[in-house]
Amino acid sequence: MTETFLDKAYDTTGVNATRALYRKWANSYDAEVSENGYATPKRCADALGAVTSDFTAPILDFGCGTGLSGLALSLVGFKAIDGMDLTQDMLDQAAEKNLYRSLSLTDPDVAFPVEKGNYSAISAIGVIGAGAAPLEVFDMLLGALGSGGKFVLSFNDSTLKNPAFEKRVGAVIKAGVADLLFEEYGDHLPGINMKSKVYVLEKT
Length: 204
Hints:
Rossmann fold, alpha/beta, 7-stranded mixed beta sheet, 7 strands, single chain
């Protein structure tokens, strides 16, 4: 019987534990989330595509995992997608999809290797929140965008239980750091009755 990991994902804390979980999950990740109707990548890609005029400009798929997010972005029409992830095992799966211009490991103990304005858009699809990246990653990614850069991200129900995440989005909008282009609550993993909120922000 194949080991399942979805039931463990949202209770995992800390970089090392998260990396260990996704290392074990890499080979069966696509099958398990697909069986549960993983809808957020398409929702995020569609939302970003609706506010994009130049699909040839480079975008960063941060926390790309096995590449399901990159696949969704590619199907919408994005041509130059770079992927970053915490786990090499997940990147190996992503590489097999032949979707990415480049793939690289990210290390939270090292300075973020992206200069401001390098990307026209950054995605963090199912990346920030419970069992995944901390709220500080939101600030890091938004800070890496130049004026007019787009940021698409999602918070699942487990993450939304902590009001700090939605409050942080509201705070950057209120402060004039970014404009809200899109916000929608909808399906995430219907198979386990979980939803997510998708946002698209534009850096001012």
